[in-house]
Amino acid sequence: MRKQYLVAAAGLLLGLLFIIATHVYQTQQAQKLDFLAREDAEVFVRPHSPTLGSPDARVTLVEFMDPACETCAAFSPFVKKLMDDNPGKIRLVLRYAPFHDGADDFVRILEAAGNQGKYWETLDIMYQSQGHWASHQNPQPHLLWDFVAMAEVDLDMVRNDMNEARIQRILEQDIADARALNVTKTPGFFVNGKPLTTFGFKQLQQLVESEIARMYPQ
User: Fold this and answer.
1) Distance CA 216, CA 214 (A)
2) Cα 135 to the chain's mean position, in Å?
3) What pLDDT is stored for residue 67 in this prediction?
């Protein structure tokens, strides 16, 4: 019986140490990223970054995303609802973290569609059709083109423009910034430079609402 108590106590101690270590790590990361936000804001938002929402919004939501990421697709309507629920207060900034196989090409297609003023329409269609061309059980990236056409873009121009050196530079810069910010999975969210350290819909909403309350005091 005493041995069982000792094992249970050891388990509790290890659990407590894990919680403390996690809290210390998250605090250190938040402090580090807060410093970056103040000293090097461009690591979060680059001039080339696609943005949605009012440029005067006091809350900037930065999302490192991958067009082939299922969770990114799931969060997209949730983020837009947050913006709709808080009109004019949130600016969404997208950055690329193309971790899935072939994701570089998906980003290139997206950026090339943006040359025709169809960036956000194309992204919506890519997310909505993702299960058909990016399924983990049966990925078929070549099928993406059928859906991109639904955004009413000139596909020949997209195929030509996706090889622009400009897009390669965007990819390289975003990947470098993702590494600097320790983004290891997508979507990776930052709200006014503060990382979403505990992942989830509710957690993101709480972080956004806390920044809205701070930036728009009643």
Assistant:
1) 6
2) 19
3) 94
